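Dear colleague,

Thank you for sharing your sequence with our group. We've completed the structure prediction you requested, and as agreed, I am returning the results in plain text so they can be pasted directly into your records. Please verify that the sequence below matches your submission; if there's any discrepancy, let me know and we will rerun it promptly.
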Amino acid sequence: MTPAVEWFPAPGKLNLLLHVLGRRNDGMHELQTVFRLIDRQDRVRIRLRADGEIRRDRPLPGIAPEDDLCIRAARLLKTETGTPQGTDLCVEKDLPLGGGLGGGSSDAATVLLVLNRLWNTGLSRAALMRLGLQLGADVPLFVFGRNALGEGLGEQLTALPLPSAWYLVLVPPVNVATASIFSDNTLTRNTKALRIPPFFRGLGNNDLEAVAVRRHPEIGTHLDWLRRRRSDARMTGSGACVFAEFESSEEARALLAELPGGMQGFVARGLEHHPLHDWAN
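Please find the predicted structure tokens below.
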């Protein structure tokens, strides 16, 4: 019998604020951020294999198998649990690479959540989050599956209820390497942590923004255009995407329709939780 194949969602995220509080002795950074899940998503196709092999059905351009977070997630779960099972994986991208929307991390989290159930490996949500941190600082968020205040590296998560909202997200034509932003000598690393909750729109800022704009002027062009219309617009993550928040889809889509030629963007709805939130306990 041919194993069932199903596509599973891997939603994106926005950083509604992102503060760099300091640099740790290991070179990593202490952060304070507010994560918002959005309905713009990648999709991951997962097919079980009885022979124990873990393979990609379709390569991602420019990403070697050993760097593919989905492959790494499946291998990590297999090693951790000792399961003899395998899987074929395929990712359909709708979140831009290097956009600060967490696409690769979300893809990996979806693999962990789905294979943990399909392989019957039985790890708890907390255990899956610990595995996810080995893959990247944003992976635990998507396993956590809720809008959250992120502290530490961003992996210390506290659920944070957020009001319903819509977002216009602009996608500058650049792929930002997160490590290059955090290692930049001009990055400010002394922001004071805010007391959250409460959280409200426009609170704080993104400390990575100035560095990203200097290194990638296209981000600044998109951000300037958006800020002339929504003064509290900001960048998400380490870039390149920038966004503004709206109370209704109509408002967001009306501004999307005004985008000049050469600029691309999309409208996304803020989620209350990950579509696969109930796949882990």
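Summary note from our side: The mean pLDDT is 95.

Kind regards,
the structure core
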